[in-house]
Amino acid sequence: MVQLQPQFALLAIAFCLPSILAVDVNYNFNIVNANIAPDGFSRAAVLVNGAFPGTLIQAQKNDVLHITVNNQLSNPTMRQSTTIHWHGLFQMRTASEDGPAFVTQCPIAPGHSYTYDIPLNGQSGTFWYHSHLSSQYVDGLRGALVVYDPTDPHLSLYDEDNANTVITLADWYHNPAPGLEDVFLAGNDEPIPDSGTINGIGRYVGGPTVVRARINVVTGKRYRFRVINISAYSGFRFSIEGHSLTIIEVDGINHVAKTVDGFDIYAAQRYSVVLNANQPVKNYWIRAPMELQHSSDNHNLDTKNVYAVLHYSGAPDAEPTTPADVGVQNLLQEYQLAALENPGAPGGSAPADRVIDLDFGRSVINNKLEWTINGVQYQSPDLPTLLNIIANNFTVESDFSQPEHTSVLNFNDVVELRIHGSANGHIHPFHLHGHAFDIVQSMGGPVNYVNPPRRDVVGVGGSTVIIRFRADNPGPWFLHCHIDWHLEAGLAVVFAEAPNEQRTGPKAEIIKPEWLDLCTIYKALPPALQ
Ligand SMILES: [Cu+2]
Asked: What keywords appear on the UniProt entry (predicted)?
């Protein structure tokens, strides 16, 4: 055996370090009720550390996140238990940390804490987090999560990428979500937000002239803006006056660089774009008009009045003097995107191992609104699906009750979902937990198995959208519309992926005693505290 010289051995270790060194990154989330006024209207909210959006999480791709959630909620007009979903993280072997209530965990009771332990396993990109209990995130529990990659293949395209280049877009409501939800579920239109916000700042009709959010740039630098739609309902059409945007990442997946003037971004989607600050020194409009059905139901809302300011260093401390409301010329079409690494849908153009048709629609029966998939309105089970798989040996579809609408997937199968139905005028952002998927057919696009876009939220309107993924990540994964009101009305299914492989073998679930305790504590709560 060849003996390495000591200096070469050291070099070899140093070379390997970036890919193997797991650093523990700790965050403390106090979930509190506090009054805030993102658009000038003060209301009680459900907040992470008192802020909206909540504390920004930043980590490197091989880190292990430890996020301690201390539930200090006490306001009876909003949900007092909580869970948090870390949107886009694959959670390999840690489905228990994924967050959706009654799919992977019981909620965290008020007065209790739970630490989410999440190894990132090399995953990087732009993510976010939000409550996944009922419609609680509407009340404020949402924020950005960024995982940096020191070996990012697009690293040479930008100079700045930090907390100041994260741009969140969010709808905002003046009233607590539970009351809005009750009215909606009685057969009415979706609750309409009162304002749209950029980085937590917005304006409503008749409200105060809140100083707009500002993004500072310096001439000659290139910025990686991480644009995140943390809305409960609304999409946005995002653009920046006088600048093109080069898309390099979509929902945590690197894509072939694609330059556009703007893009539509639906609830829960993310885009990283590079902006070159190469224009004359002044202020420019950042525009994000909202796109949502029935917006005229709420006269507080001006869908166009969602602006921030791109401020060049040296420009006056003021809003731009140019017209604000200008349309986008070269708008992104999703099907034009191509995944950068390992392009191609799983299984290529060969038939998938499993094809599932998902036909969704809306109905109102006896003043009760339902959104259904294949005629079934999803309803949460009493015990989390994950607990039933791990502790009660649930393995085949008949183990699950009908309203749980749970399909079992075989380990490593290529799964093709064909999503279609009656969109009812909406574009429904369908999100799959535990995976990114290839979009074999995007809304209005051609079929493409060779180099399609890959992401974890896809908009579905009136036409059939086809997505594919490989069932290589055991776990019960939620697939649902990310219009939170539609999810609450039942627009969801669960895929119980590889139950046997989740119980035993190299991809088996890591079970934490404190995760098991969550259900014992929660089930003992009076209904008002659940
Ligand atoms: Cu929907």
From this structure: Copper, Disulfide bond, Glycoprotein, Metal-binding, Oxidoreductase, Signal
Burial class (CB in 10 A: 0-12, 13-18, 19+), 90: buried
> Residue written as tokens 């239109």?
189
CATH node for 6-152: 2.60.40.420
Q: How far is the CA of 85 from the centre of ligand 1 (A)?
A: 19
> Where are the domain boundaries for CATH 2.60.40.420 in the chain?
6-152, 163-336, 354-523
Question: How far is the centre of ligand 1, averaged over its atoms, from the C-alpha of 45 (Å)?
Answer: 24
Each residue of 350-406: pLDDT tens digit? 999 999 999 999 999 999 999 999 999 999 999 999 999 999 999 999 999 999 999
Is CATH 3.30.2310.20 the classification given to domain 354-523? no
Expressed in angstroms and rounded, the spacing between residue 483 Cα and the centre of ligand 1 is 5
- CA of 266 from ligand 1 middle (Å) equals 11
* pLDDT tens for each residue of 9-36: 333 344 444 445 679 999 999 999 999 9
CA–CA separation, 267 vs 236, rounded Å?
8
- C-alpha of residue 168 to centroid of ligand 1, in Å: 21
Q: Which residues pair with 358 in a beta bridge?
A: 419
**How far apart are the CA of 464 and the centre of ligand 1, in A?**
15
Would you state the CATH architecture of domain 163-336?
Answer: Sandwich (2.60)
Q: Are strands 283-287 and 307-312 parallel, antiparallel or unpaired?
A: antiparallel
